[in-house]
Amino acid sequence: MQNISIVIPVYNRAEVVKRTLNSVLGQQYRPLEVVLVDNCSTDGTLAVLESFAAEHNTPDFSVKVVQESIHTAGAARNRGAQEATGEWLMFFDSDDEMDSKLVSSYVECIKDNGNKTDIVSTGAILKFADGSQRSLPFFTSDILAVQVLHSQLATQRYIVKKQFFETCGKWNATLPAWNDWELGMRLLINNPHIAFLEKEYVTVNHSGEQSITGNNFKSKAGVWEHVIDVVQNEVTQSSIGNKHRYQRLLEYKRLVLAAQYKLEGEKSLSDNLRHHAMQQLAVTYDNSPKWKYVISPIVRWLFNRVSSDKRGAARVAIKIFG
């Protein structure tokens, strides 16, 4: 029997979090430990969390409520991990839902793969406010490249051995955005043994602005670029092979961000970032003819595709930088 802790940071979600909590309560697997972290909420969130704990805390479903005064998702999740006693950690967002078999499926996968497993990743569905939904990208190979462009190790999409998580340095509490993408990159750079659940056991609800990090790009211009810089440095300092490939993919991620700025009407931001990323990509190819006549035209085409809000460019990028 595996000892599992679920950590959920919450900020101003007095109503929405009830849906998430009910999905946790509905897990078939027991025992479970649930650590709820109120992150400076100004509405009735703390009371909702405390009420849930008072009603449902039992010997095989332990619920702990704590508060974290540092208002970043990373700080809140680190506080929850500090309070957790489980051998395995699940981090989850306060507006999403887990299938009732998620934890039991993780446990079965861990058993099937033996003690060598460090991470198990699951498929997920993105659900929009109008009720429409789509499957999020899910791959079982080339996972570091996939993480760069698709963030498969998003907060709610994996379980990690606590010891491995701590060895990798925990959450970066200084990052106000893309902190789960950065942690996922760092976990993978440390060469984990990873297993996969291909069924879509998680529903990610596209809820807009009420999260700790938000989902608007131009309002945090400079922040996203800083996180990419942090990851670039981590890749450079790591012992992974073929560093040029991942450095190029990270520069392509800057181009995708530039395309998002363009979609949001920020032409100056977009042009400056695109110019910077293209320059850096050229450097990694030593400004060779291959770059000038083969790679550069494809990359420009990919930028135009993304800035027209078309899908599928990431698959091409992963191949050309392979």
Quick one: how many beta strands?
Answer: 9
CATH superfamily of the largest domain: Spore Coat Polysaccharide Biosynthesis Protein SpsA, Chain A
Give the mean pLDDT: 94
CATH architecture of the largest domain: Alpha-Beta Complex
Annotation field: number of helices: 12
Largest sheet: 9 strands, mixed
If you consult CATH, what is the topology of the largest domain?
Spore Coat Polysaccharide Biosynthesis Protein SpsA, Chain A
Please give the domain count.
2
Distance between the termini: 40 Å
Instruction: Specify the overall morphology.
Output: globular
**Estimated structural class:** alpha/beta
CATH class of the largest domain: Alpha Beta
The helical percent reads 40-55%
Quaternary structure annotation: single chain
Over all CA atoms, what is the radius of gyration? 20 Å
Unreliable spans: 209-214
- Please state roughly what percent of the residues sit in beta strands, choosing from under 5%, 5-15%, 15-25%, 25-35%, 35-45% or over 45%: 15-25%
Order of helices and strands: EHEHEHEEHEEHEHHEHHHHH
What can you tell me about this protein's structure?
Helix content is 47%, strand content 17%. It is built from twelve helices and nine strands. Strands 1, 2, 3, 4, 5, 6, 7, 8 and 9 form a nine-stranded mixed β-sheet that branches. It has two domains: 4-205, Spore Coat Polysaccharide Biosynthesis Protein SpsA, Chain A (Alpha-Beta Complex); 218-320. The protein has 322 residues and is an alpha/beta fold.
In short:
This protein is an alpha/beta fold and 322 residues long. It is built from twelve helices and nine strands.
